[in-house]
Amino acid sequence: MRYYLMTLGCQMNLSDGERVHTVLKEMGGREVQHDSQADIVGIIACSVRQKAIDKVYNQIARWNKEKNHRTLITFISGCILPEDRERFLKLFDLVLPMSEVLSLPEMIRSSGIVTPASLMFPGQEKGIPVNKQIFSLWNIRPDYQSNFEAFVPIQNGCNKFCTFCAVPYTRGREVSRPSEEILEQIRELIDRDFKSITLLGQNVNSYGLDKPGKKISFAKLLRMVGDLAGKAGKENWIYYTSPHPRDMNEEVFDVMAAYPNLAGQVHLPMQSGDDKILVRMNRNHSMDRYRELVRSIRQKLPGATLFTDIITGFTGETDEQHMNTMRAMKEFRFNMAYIAQYSPRPGAASYRWEDSVPKELKKERFHQLNEILEKTASEHNRDQIGQVVRVLVTGPDRKTGYMKGLTEGKTNVRFPTGPAGKTGAFADVRISSSNGMSLEGKLMPVKIESLALDG
Ligand code: SF4
Fold first, then answer.
1. Of 175, 221, 358, 405, which sits most exposed with the smallest number of CB within 10 A?
2. Where are the alpha helices (DSSP H) in 6-164?
3. Which residue in 281, 287, 286 sits closest to 312, CA to CA?
4. Is the CB of 203 under 6 A from ligand 1?
């Protein structure tokens, strides 16, 4: 049985997709690189942007045409809005929530689709039940798509209901994964020498809030992770994304400062620098609170980089409110900001509101914010010139003869290929220049530390 899986959207989907790969492989599936070679085709959907939803509709229309001349089983899972689910039920053979992905083999069998022998998974024809020991998606062993970088889900869903976002409707309410499972997965990744591990969730720092009475806070979980990584004594960087400013507290930064494996990078979505817009977005925190958090990060984690998300041109945003976002960007001097021009997202509350800021104005504001980002990021990067920085090599660069990698703070670095710069390994690079948002340098020779030369 050959399968093709298309994963759309964020890192959370990527992580879920790795578990779907496992289920399909346990069915006896073999992944193929092109859908035309597959017997089963599936999509892990994303409903955050209309573009991603359109992609699903285009894809399924094509697959349904192909069904006229060959057997093809189609399924969809992931982030699906209720209204799309109704339509998908008519278009796909199988529509299932991610939490039910373990039932996929059984669903194929009971769907009434004629499955030729080549499409059956081992044991199906004998009616052997699919392995039901693992009930939870989180318990499925992921089929990691990298051998040095991995994502560990710690929490799923969202209770925040930001007015521009549909996630609470597609992924449901916040649920925390048991800490023992998280620690077990991290232990295994460290044993297997993974270098970059990211704790994942829609609101990672709301971890434990859904378990009143026996809750482990996010800071406590982070401390346990730091302890575990410290005892293992290996070099790796452990990240988390994304936290929400509303549930963030200073204890998290204390823990990060105390454990060297907890990477010095904080991604703290700001979305807007204006209090009134934050209220309209239902973010439930003020700019004063955001400012306090940034102050605390700078004080407790002086070497850490600061990333953010910003939406420009949110419905009703005035020039003055946009100026407040510009001021905030200048004040906080982000290393990186993912700036999006507002577009109504189906399923979100603001989808029903007038998209009142004209396209051209959004574009203009977007450029103004990007200019500030480029300025602050390049100032940070210029400070690195002449320094030797530790880099996790992530692969060949687009420029021939060069490799690329990321610093602990996730700044892009490129350098000429050399024996020390292997993909998935750490290397030291002396920075020679800064190209705005990224750095360039030369590999340092490998240190041979424990060689005893004197006799
Ligand atoms: S916190 Fe807001 S932006 Fe983030 S997933 Fe929840 S609703 Fe969406």
1. 358
2. 11-26, 50-66, 82-91, 104-110
3. 281
4. yes
Could you give the CA distance from residue 329 to residue 321 in angstroms, rounded to a whole number?
13
Give the burial string for 81-109 (b: 16+ CB within 10 Å, else e): beebeeebeebbbbbbbbbebbbbbebbb
Residue 419: pLDDT band (50, 70, 90) is confident
Residue bearing the CA closest to ligand 1, atom 4: 202
SS3 assignment for 54-96: HHHHHHHHHHHHHCCCCCCEEEEEECCCHHHHHHHHHHCCEEC
Whether the CB of 165 sits within 6 Å of ligand 1: yes
How confident is the model over 229-239, as pLDDT tens digits?
999 999 999 99
Higher pLDDT, 348 or 388: 388
Phi first, then psi, for residue 104 (nearest 5°) are: -50, -50
In a mutational test of the pocket of ligand 1, which residue from 10, 167, 203, 272 has the highest number of ligand atoms less than 8 Å from its CB?
167
Give the pLDDT band of residue 447 (cuts 50, 70, 90). Answer: low
Model confidence over 321-361: pLDDT tens digits?
Answer: 999 999 999 999 999 999 999 999 888 899 999 999 999 99
158 CA from centroid of ligand 1 (Å): 6
Ligand 1 centroid to 295 CA: how many Å? Answer: 23
The response to whether residue 158 sits with its C-beta less than 6 Å from ligand 1 reads: yes
CA-to-CA separations, 73 to 30, 105, 114, 116, 391, in angstroms, rounded = 15, 12, 10, 11, 43
Q: How far is the CA of 150 from the centre of ligand 1 (A)?
A: 23
**Ligand 1 centroid, distance to 165 Cα (angstroms):** 6
Asked if the model's pLDDT at residue 112 lies above 80, the reply is no
Residue of 160, 207, 248 best suited for mutating to test ligand 1, as the one with most atoms within 8 Å of CB = 160
Among 81-85, 224-228, 330-334, the least confident range: 81-85
Q: Where are the beta strands (DSSP E) in 133-216?
A: 149-153, 155-156, 175-176, 196-200
Q: What pLDDT sits at residue 77?
A: 92
Q: Average of pLDDT values for 121-135?
A: 34
Please give the helix or strand (H or E) that residue 371 lies within, else none.
helix 359-382
CA distance 16 to 5: 12
